[in-house]
Specification:
Family: Belongs to the peptidase M4 family.
Number of helices: 7
CATH topology of the largest domain: Neutral Protease, domain 2
Distance between the termini: 63 Å
Radius of gyration: 19 Å
Organism: Streptomyces lavenduligriseus
Structural class: alpha+beta
Oligomer: single chain
Largest sheet: 6 strands, mixed
CATH architecture of the largest domain: Orthogonal Bundle
Bound molecules: asparagine, zinc ion, calcium ion
Shape: globular
Protein name: M4 family metallopeptidase
CATH superfamily of the largest domain: Neutral Protease Domain 2
């Protein structure tokens, strides 16, 4: 059977009208993206979270126009996933010359409509694949397929293939922060008018309170840590990630309030310092080099500080302003003081 790569049109839940890469075979089309490692989007058909691929089938249909932009269209969540994973691929390729999760050119399959009323998404390193739930009554049944979520989940694969930060304690917080950092960078990179870049995570998911996490002010959710303390290794990794997220925000944007992507960002610190940011692209380059060259499975926050200072020295020089501001940003989240 002959497969031909062909651009289709999509109307996603959160990304709006977009182009997506598809394949034509015979008289039909499928969500197979050869331009991004052959990424295939599957409908899990509500297989249980314990076995998400049980009833899965690839999306296929007679025309090459997918979704209508509503939660109830099964294809709309698939459009979000196809677009989000393609943008994540392009971000890593064009920014760091990384070809997919393992830098081997192979795409990671995605499964949407996993389980019932699942307000979550997961990366699974056993299949190098990702699972996305449909959301629940708590978020207006909005599928959990937004750009920052797709970028977050695929970045768990990149972390597993590089530093392999253990998913508990402080290293687990760093693992989660890495996914929030690059999930947000993917959102900026995509420059999608329906979902502009910001340092909020899950702001397009109709969550009570408006978001899942904030990098600029993590503790605004009443749970996440904005500042390191000696208990950081004992809380859930999605809460200790706040320290790394807050570091990244301050390193990128500096202190003081800003509006970014139409949302309020709050640059307060743990030490009342004021300083400029180095910009998000340089901050991401520092984090990526630290992740891929210096961090290991047991790296904690003190080790992440050392790793990023070394990365900044490599990229910008030992006496650079960039390295100096990285040290200021860590001090501002109570690491290394
Ligand atoms: N959404 C979560 C994450 O990607 C799922 C989990 O906690 N395993 O981290
Ligand atoms: Zn995660
Ligand atoms: Ca976001």
């Amino acid at each position: 059977e002959l497969h031909q790569n062909i651009t289709g049109t999509g109307n996603g839940v959160t990304v709006g009208q977009v182009s997506i890469e598809t394949a034509q075979s015979g008289s039909g089309y499928s969500l197979t993206d050869a331009a991004h490692g052959g990424t295939v989007v599957y409908d899990s058909y509500n297989s249980p979270q314990s076995n998400p691929r049980q009833n899965a089938r690839p999306f296929s249909k007679a025309t090459n126009s997918w979704g209508n932009g509503t939660n109830s269209s099964r294809e709309s969540a698939a459009v979000d996933a196809s677009y989000g994973l393609a943008k994540t691929w392009d971000y890593y390729k064009n920014t760091f010359n990384r070809s997919g999760i393992r830098n081997d050119g192979r795409g990671a399959p995605a499964y949407v409509h996993v389980d019932n009323s699942l307000l979550n998404a997961f990366y699974d390193d056993n299949c190098f694949c990702m699972y996305f739930g449909d959301g629940s009554s708590q978020n207006g049944n909005t599928p959990v397929t937004a750009l920052d979520v797709a970028g977050h989940e695929m970045s768990h694969g990149v972390t597993a293939a590089t530093a392999n930060l253990t998913y508990s304690g402080e290293s687990g917080g760093l693992n989660e922060a890495t996914s929030d950092i690059f999930g947000s960078m993917v959102e900026f990179y995509a420059n999608n008018s329906s979902d502009p870049g910001d340092y909020y995570i899950g702001e397009k998911l109709n969550m009570t309170g408006g978001y899942m996490r904030r990098m600029d002010n993590p503790s605004a959710d009443g749970r996440s840590l904005s500042c390191w303390n000696s208990n950081a290794g004992s809380v859930d990794v999605h809460l200790s990630s706040g320290i790394g997220n807050h570091f990244f925000y301050l390193a990128a944007e500096g202190t003081g309030a800003k509006t970014i992507g139409g949302r309020s960002h709050n640059g307060t610190t743990c030490n009342n310092d004021t300083f400029a940011g180095i910009g998000k692209d340089k901050a991401a380059a520092v984090w990526y080099r630290a992740l891929s060259a210096y961090m290991t499975s047991t790296t904690n926050y003190a080790g992440a500080r050392t790793a990023t200072l070394q990365a900044a020295a490599d990229l910008y020089g030992t006496n650079s302003q960039e390295r100096y501001l990285i040290s200021k940003a860590w001090a501002a989240v109570s690491v290394g003081t």
